[in-house]
Amino acid sequence: xxxxxxxxxxxxxxxxxxxxxxxxxxxxxxxxxxxxxxxxxxxxxxxxxxxxxxxxxxxxxxxxxxxxxxxxxxxxxxxxxxxxxxxxxxxxxxxxxxxxxxxxxxxxxxxxxxxxxxxxxxxxxxxxxxxxxxxxxxxxxxxxxxxxxxxxxxxxxxxxxxxxxxxxxxxxxxxxxxxxxxxxxxxxxxxxxxxxxxxxxxxxxxxxxxxxxxxxxxxxxxxxxxxxxxxxxxxxxxxxxxxxxxxxxxxxxxxxxxxxxxxxxxxxxxxxxxxxxxxxxxxxxxxxxxxxxxxxxxxxxxxxxxxxxxxxxxxxxxxxxxxxxxxxxxxxxxxxxxxxxxxxxxxxxxxxxxxxxxxxxxxxxxxxxxxxxxxxxxxxxxxxxxxxxxxxxxxxxxxxxxxxxxxxxxxxxxxxxxxxxxxxxxxxxxxxxxxxxxxxxxxxxxxxxxxxxxxxxxxxxxxxxxxxxxxxxxxxxxxxxxxxxxxxxxxxxxxxxxxxxxxxxxxxxxxxxxxxxxxxxxxxxxxxxxxxxxxxxxxxxxxxxxxxxxxxxxxxxxxxxxxxxxxxxxxxxxxxxxxxxxxxxxxxxxxxxxxxxxxxxxxxxxxxxxxxxxxxxxxxxxxxxxxxxxxxxxxxxxxxxxxx
Amino acid sequence: xxxxxxxxxxxxxxxxxxxxxxxxxxxxxxxxxxxxxxxxxxxxxxxxxxxxxxxxxxxxxxxxxxxxxxxxxxxxxxxxxxxxxxxxxxxxxxxxxxxxxxxxxxxxxxxxxxxxxxxxxxxxxxxxxxxxxxxxxxxxxxxxxxxxxxxxxxxxxxxxxxxxxxxxxxxxxxxxxxxxxxxxxxxxxxxxxxxxxxxxxxxxxxxxxxxxxxxxxxxxxxxxxxxxxxxxxxxxxxxxxxxxxxxxxxxxxxxxxxxxxxxxxxxxxxxxxxxxxxxxxxxxxxxxxxxxxxxxxxxxxxxxxxxxxx
Amino acid sequence: xxxxxxxxxxxxxxxxxxxxxxxxxxxxxxxxxxxxxxxxxxxxxxxxxxxxxxxxxxxxxxxxxxxxxxxxxxxxxxxxxxxxxxxxxxxxxxxxxxxxxxxxxxxxxxxxxxxxx
Amino acid sequence: xxxxxxxxxxxxxxxxxxxxxxxxxxxxxxxxxxxxxxxxxxxxxxxxxxxxxxxxxxxxxxxxxxxxxxxxxxxxxxxxxxxxxxxxxxxxxxxxxxxxxxxxxxxxxxxxxxxxxxxxxxxxxxxxxxxxxxxxxxxxxxxxxxxxxxxxxxxxxxxxxxxxxxxxxxxxxxxxxxxxxxxxxxxxxxxxxxxxxxxxx
Lengths: 644, 310, 117, 201
Known about the structure:
Chain D: One of its GO terms (cellular component) is plasma membrane. The structure holds four protein chains of four kinds. Chain B is an alpha+beta fold. Chain B folds into two domains: about 1-75 and about 90-115, Helix Hairpins (Orthogonal Bundle); about 130-295, Cupredoxins -  blue copper proteins (Immunoglobulin-like, Sandwich), CATH 2.60.40.420. Helices cover about 35% and strands about 20% of the residues of chain B. In chain B, a hairpin with a 3-residue loop joins strand 6 and strand 7. Chain C folds into two domains: about 1-60; about 65-95. Helix content of chain C is about 65%, strand content about 0%. Chains in contact: A-B, A-C, A-D, B-C, C-D.
C-alpha cells in the first residue's frame, strides 16, 4: 500500500484537519512533559477504576465528540445554505453526514449519558462504586478507543460514506470498497462491546448495591431510568454486535449475508440495524427523561408528581421500543398488514410519553420554580420535545409516512426529539451535577447566554426543515434547488446560533474554573436525593457511612428531620479496588488489532487478537484483592471536606 | 414582572411562528398541494392528523406557560399556592392516560384504512386497467419500461392523466426509492425484489421525481421529470417513440448500467425485460457482476450542471 | 433444590436422562415419523424448549436463593426478545419475492398474472 | 429445605463480589441469548437461499450430528456433577469431572471442525451462498463459544491446582458451569432448528 493511499489526500479541509491534529497532539505532549504530568496522567486517570473519574472522562470525550459532530453539522449547513454553494463536493458531503450521525449518536449522546450515570447513579443509590469497577474502566476504554478509531478515518484511509445507517448493498464490499466502511464497522463494534459491558455492570450495581432500605420504588427516578436503559442495552446491543460482525465478515471474508450475489438479502441489514436502532433511540432518550425529572423536582422544590406512573411509563416505553422497528422502513413495501401492525404499535408509544409530559407539568403545579440554568434547559425541553413528539406520531402513521420518509420532515423530527430530549438533558445534567464533579458551579449569567443562543438557534434551525420536507426536499442531498433556498438559509443561521451557544458553554467551563466560587457544602442546589449527601469533593469511597433509606427523596427527608448523613461513630474501614492499567492496555491492543483489520491485514489483526486474549488470561490469574482505607483516614477526609 | 413578560413573549412568539408558517405556506408546499388522488389521500390524512397535533401542542403550551408564570418563586407569593408534598392523583392521571389512547385510536383507524387503499389503484379510475411501468433504479439513473407498449425511457417518464399507473419497482444495484412528491408517497426499489406502487395524475403538468434514498455519490442527481398529459397526447408520444427510437440492445443496456450520471435522457423502442428482470432473485447480481470495479470509482461530483435533464 | 451434602446428585441424573430421551424423541419425530412437516416442526421445537427448561432449572439452579430475582427475570425477557427477533424478522422480511422462480426469460404477462395472486 | 435455610448459602454466593459476579453473569447470558437469537433470525430469514450450492438436506447426516449432541449433553451433565462435587468440598471430584467435561468439549469441537470440512468439500462454504453463510456463522459462533469455554476451563483447572476451593475460585467455576450449560441450550436449538428442520424440509 502506498503512503498516499494510507493517508487521505487532495482535500484542503482534511489537510487542515491533519495539521490541527498534529498541532494539538504535539501541544498536549509538550505540556505533559513540560509540567512533568505523565505520571499523574497515568496514575490518576488512565489506570483509575473510580466511577467518578471515569464519568468525567466520558463527559470530556463526549464534549469533544459534540464539537466534532457539530463542526460536521455546520459544514453541511454551510453547503446547503445557497443553491450554488460549492463548499463541499458530493463525496465529501456524504462522508460528513455519515460521520455526523454516527458520532452524535454513538460517540456523543450515549457516552455523555453514560458519563452522567457513572457520576450520579452510584451516589444516588448510596453505593461505593460500580459492581465491577475493573469492567467499568474496560468499558470506558473500549468506547474511547472505538471513537478514536472511527475518528482517525478522516485522515487515514478515508471516512465511511454510506450514512450512519450504513445500508447494504451500498455499504457492502462491491459498492464501498476500501477501509472507510470498515472503520465504521469496527469503531462501532469496539464501543458497542464497551456499552454492553456497562449495561451489565450498571444493572447489577442498581439491582444489588442500593443502600439498605432503598427498595426499587424508593429509588431516585434517574436511577430508575438508568436501570431500564441498561435493560434495553443488554438486549439491544447484541443485535448490533451481530449485525456489524456479519457485515464485517461480508466485506472482509466474502460471506453473502447482505450481498447482491449468492442470493444474499441486503434488506436483512436494515431489519437487524433497526431492531437495534429503535431501542437505541430510547437508550438515549430515557436517561434524558430521568435527568429532567430530577432537575424539575429539585428546582420546583416539590416532589415529582406521579412517581410510580413515571416509572411504569418508562418500563412500558422500554417494552414497546422492541416492537416498533419496522417504522423505519415502512416504505420497503412489506404490505399493508405489516405496516398497520407497526403503525399502531408506534403510535402506542405516544401514550406513556404523553403521560410523562403531563406528569412533568403537574409537578410544576403549585410548586416554587427557581429559574436556574439546569431548570431552564429542563423547561425548554417540555414544549420543544412535544413538537418533536407529535411529528413523531405523524411519521408513525405509515400511509402518511410514504410522503415524509427520507425527507427533511424526518430530519426535523428526530433532531427535535434528540436535541430537545437528549442534548438538552446532557446540558441540564452536566450543569446540575457539575459541582459534584469539579467542586464549583458553572457561571449562571454566561450559562443563560449559552442557553438562549442554543435554544433559539435550535428552533430556527429545525422548524423550517419540517416545511422543507413537505416541499419534497430529501435528506442527504449535497445541494439544494432554488425553491428550497429561503428556508434553508434560515436553517443555516439557526445552526450557527447553536454553534455560538456551544462555544459560549465551553467558554463558561473555562471562566467558571477560573472565577467561580468553590463549593463549601456538598449540597449547592438544596437537592433531594442521596448524591447531595456526600461532601464536595466527593471522597473516593463516596459514603463514609452508607445511609439508611426509608423514603423517596431520601436526602430531603434527612434534611427535614435534621439528620446528618455523616455519623463519625459508625465509620469502619472501607474496602477499595486497586487501580489498574490492564483495561487501558487490553483495549489498546484490541484497537490496534481492529485497525489492522480495517486495512484487511489479517495476520497482524490475528496477532492483535491473540494479544487481547493473553491480556484476558493475565486478568484471570490476577487475584488482587484491593486495599482498605482506615477509619482514621476516613474521619480525617470527612472532617476536612465537611468543615467540621 | 419584567421576567414574566419576557417569558410569555417568547412563548407566544414560538407558538405563532408555526401557525403563521402553517397558514401561509401550506398551499404552496408540494406535498400539501398534490396533483393526483394518491397524494390527495395522503394529504387528507396529514391534515387530519395535524388538527390533533395542533390541539395537543396548544394544550401543552398553554398549560406550560401557565405553570411557569404562575408558580415561579417570587416574593409575595401566596403560601397556600405551594404544596411540596403533592405526590400524585389517580383520577387525573387516569384521565391523561385515556386521552392519548383515544387520540391514538382516532389516528390509527384512518391510517390503516389508507394503508390498504394505497395497495390498489385509485378508485377514480377503477374501470380502467392500470398502466404498468417497470421502474428500475440503477446507480444513478432511472429506467422506465412500458412492457405493453414495448418502449423504454431513461431518466424521464410520460404518463397519461386520469389513469392509474402501476409502478413495479426494482433496482439493478443499490437500494433506491421512487418518489414523486406531487403525486404521492415513495417506495423502495431493491435488487432481487419487486414492490408495487400505484400513483395517478389528475392534472397535466411536469412534476419532479427522484430517488429519495441515499445510494452513493451520484444520489442527488438521480432525478427525473414526469410528464403527465392527456391520454391522446400520451398515445401520440408512445407511437412516436415506437417508430423513431432505436431498439435497446443488451450491450447498449449493459453500458448504460455502468455507475454514473447520464448527460441526456434516452428512449428506446424495446425494453430490457426481455433478458433481465432485476426484480427477481436471478436478476439481482446482473449489474454488480458486470461492473464490479466501476462501483468503487469516484465521480468527483461538484454542485453545478451535472446533466441536461434537470 | 438438591441438598448440597447429598452424595448422589439425583436432580442432575434425572435431568440428564430426560434430556437424552427428549433428544432421541425429537430425532425420531423428525426422521422416522410420518407427521406433516408443520407438526414435526412444532413438536421438535416444543421439545427443544422443554430441554432448555430442564437445563435452566435442573442444572443451572436458576431459582437458587443466592442471586435473587434477576436470573429468571432476565431469562424470561431474553426468551421473549429471542422470539421477537426470529418471528419478527420472518414476519417483516417475507415480502417482495412474488416470483422467485420467474427468472430473466419469463414474460411480463405471466408475471402480471402471478403478481395478482 | 429447612435445614438448608439455616445453612449458609453455597460458598460462591457468600461474598458480595461472588454474588455480584453471578448475577452479572446471568445478565450477560441474557445478552448472549439476544445474540444467538439474532443469528437464528438471520438463519431463518436466509433459509432456502442456497443459490448454486448444495441443499442442507443433501449434506446433513443424522448420525454425526446426534453423536455431537450426545457429547455435549453428557458434558453438560458432567459439568453439573463437577459443581455438585465442589459444593461438597471435594477438590479431587471437581477436578476429575471438570477434566472430563473439558475432554468432551474438545472432542465436540473436533467433530464440528471435521463436519465443516466435509461440507466444504461438497461445495458448501462460508462464501457459497447466503444460506451457508448463515449456517456457518451460527454453528461457528457456537463452536467459538465452546472453544472459549474450554480454554477457560483449562485456566480454572490450573487455578484450582494452585489455590483449592475458595470463595473466588468457586465463584469462577460456578460461572463457568452456567456458561457451559447455556452453550448446551444453544446447541439444542441448533440441533433442532438447523439440523432436524434442515433434514425435514
